[in-house]
Design goal:
The structure holds two protein chains of two kinds. Chain A is mostly helical. Chain A has one domain: 2-methylcitrate dehydratase PrpD (Orthogonal Bundle). Chain A has twelve helices and one strand. Chain A starts with 5 loop residues before the first helix and ends with a helix. The relative contact order of chain A is 0.14. Chain B is an alpha+beta fold. Chain B has a single domain, classed as 60s Ribosomal Protein L30, Chain: A (2-Layer Sandwich), CATH 3.30.1330.90. Chain B contains seven helices and twelve strands. In chain B, helix 2 runs parallel beside helix 4 and helix 4 runs parallel beside helix 5. Chain B is globular. The chains are: A mainly alpha, B alpha+beta.
Chain lengths: 275, 239
């Protein structure tokens, strides 16, 4: 679509100055990662083999093969792509962490989903992906990006913010719009806990990636229409970090609260411990 | 974290912190020995202990000790691979105190009897931090080349090591040192912008104060699109 935003060009230049790598090398690696993401999507959509626990494995293919009753092909594609990646992940398959494995489906779901919907090439996704990485860097300087440290808000919130900025850039948004897309995605994720059933990256992680891939696309839509985050981006990151620090250990990936402690969640834990 | 750490690593699932990070902890530990590892005892702390089994954390650490990268297809079968490679392992739960919830302690013994121990944390997205080596406080991520030396505390040793590094045209990014007591055993941990030359390493190893010297190569190769499971280059010399 448009030329890269000044923001993504700045991110690339700054990071290469730090690492000493050639920008073209980084772009080449990024393209390689986009293709790896595509492979995960393809594998995930073509199988309904169960995960390690048997809790997930057929969701992506199930949705992909189902009729589009809402007549919303973009929505369906984004959701199916995101779950395909996370179901591959749950099968101990090969994925690209973005920024983590538990949140690996959000960026490919949103960015590759939108690109395929509009018929764009993988090469056009490279600079948006660089910007996504830059947003992730900016967040991780103030905040943690693991569920164990800051709850799911830190993981899926970061991936959704990164994806929102990337989709905004892909569709020709200004640098300012990209950053506000990220900020809006993040501010609407604050408070989300990490309560995986049995401690496995499956429930709610797989469906959560479908939801937050859509969340990222929504955020891009608002930003592209000129809407902005009322709380400035840096302050939103600060607020999320504060909430993360207040979050009890039980809700930070320990499987000691929330969905993990439901009767059904406990039954899964007991069954897996017996194995 | 570099751009390629944020979008990456390419890895075998299911968890960047519990699988990829765990594998990288193994990759660092592996490089602290100059010989093939023969046996290991691994203590899992907090979240690693609670949810490690479901995340393949145990297999991932063994895979790292075997030199497999996080995207190596052999990672899920690391236990069998360890058997073939002559590496025995045992796991236990442990409490390492006030460290990141995703932490582990690895005690490693080499085929020729060399021993080393470390404590490391997996802080998210596959990024790790080594916080202790042989009981000494250190801090390095393995993202860049890292020089570790265990030596006898004496006047000017740190300055001389820094001068040697500068003379080798390598810039120091970060430095941590700690010692048991004045004039006692000490450790120097220097994160570098590039590797030290073999000649400089050899020279350093010959100093009478040096107990051992190790060069840890970057475990997060920024240029990697696809890692492919190469055994990391080992470098290490002892006095």
């Amino acid at each position: 679509m448009n030329a890269p935003s000044p923001a993504s060009a700045w991110v690339l230049e700054t990071d290469c100055a730090e690492s000493g790598l050639d920008p073209e090398t980084v772009k080449g690696s990024m393209l390689g990662r986009i293709r790896e993401m595509r492979d995960s999507i393809r594998r995930g959509l073509s199988t309904d083999a169960p995960s390690i626990t048997g809790m997930v494995g057929w969701n992506a293919k199930g949705l992909h093969d189902a009729p589009d009753v809402l007549q919303a092909p973009l929505l369906k594609r984004v959701q199916a792509y995101a779950m395909a990646v996370n179901e591959e992940n749950a099968r101990m398959g090969r994925i690209v962490a973005a920024p983590t494995a538990g949140s690996a489906g959000t960026i490919p779901g949103a960015l590759i989903g939108v690109a395929d919907h509009l018929g764009l090439s993988d090469e056009q996704l490279v600079m948006p992906m660089v910007l996504a990485a830059g947003i992730g860097q900016a967040i991780s300087r103030q905040m943690f990006i693991s569920g164990a440290a800051g709850g799911c808000q830190a993981e899926i919130g970061s991936s959704a913010a990164m994806a929102a900025a990337a989709v905004t850039e892909l569709l020709g948004g200004s640098s300012r719009a990209c950053v506000h897309a990220a900020s809006m995605a993040l501010m609407n994720t604050i408070g989300l806990v990490c309560d995986p059933v049995g401690g496995f990256v499956e429930v709610p992680c797989v469906s959560r990636n479908a939801f937050f891939a859509v969340h990222a696309v929504s955020s891009a839509q608002l930003a592209l229409a000129g809407l902005e985050s009322f709380i400035p981006p840096d302050e939103v990151v600060g607020a999320m970090a504060q909430v993360g620090r207040m979050m009890p250990l039980e809700l930070r990936e320990t499987a000691e609260g929330g969905l993990a402690q439901t009767p059904t969640g406990l039954a899964v834990t007991a069954r897996m411990e017996g194995k | 974290m570099s751009l390629l750490d944020m979008i990456g690593p390419v890895m075998i699932g299911p968890s960047s912190s519990h699988t990829a990070g765990a594998c990288r902890i193994g990759l660092v530990a592996r490089q602290l020995l100059r010989e093939a590892p023969a046996s290991t005892r691994i203590g899992l702390h907090a979240s690693f202990a609670k949810t490690g089994k479901g995340h393949g954390t145990l297999q991932a650490m063994v895979a790292g000790l075997l030199g497999f990268q996080p995207d190596d297809d052999r990672l899920p079968n690391a236990f069998a691979e360890a058997g073939a490679a002559g590496l025995s392992f045992e796991f236990h739960d442990t409490d390492l105190g006030d460290v990141h919830p995703n932490s582990a302690q690895i005690e490693l013994t080499g085929a020729g009897g060399e021993r080393v121990g470390l404590v490391a944390s997996s802080t998210g997205g596959g990024v790790i931090e080594v916080v202790k080596v042989d009981g000494f406080r250190v801090s390095f991520s393995g993202a860049s080349s890292t020089l570790l030396t265990r030596y006898t505390d004496a006047l000017g040793v740190i300055a001389r090591v820094a001068s040697l590094v500068a003379a080798d045209h390598v810039n120091i990014a970060a430095l941590v040192c700690s010692r048991e007591k004045r004039g006692g055993a000490a450790m120097l941990c220097i994160e570098l912008d590039g590797p030290l030359s073999p000649a400089a390493l050899n020279f350093l190893s010959g100093w009478p104060e040096m107990d051992w010297v190790r060069m840890v190569r970057p475990i997060m190769d920024a240029g990697d699109t696809i890692g492919g499971g190469d055994v990391p280059v080992l470098a290490g010399t002892t006095a």
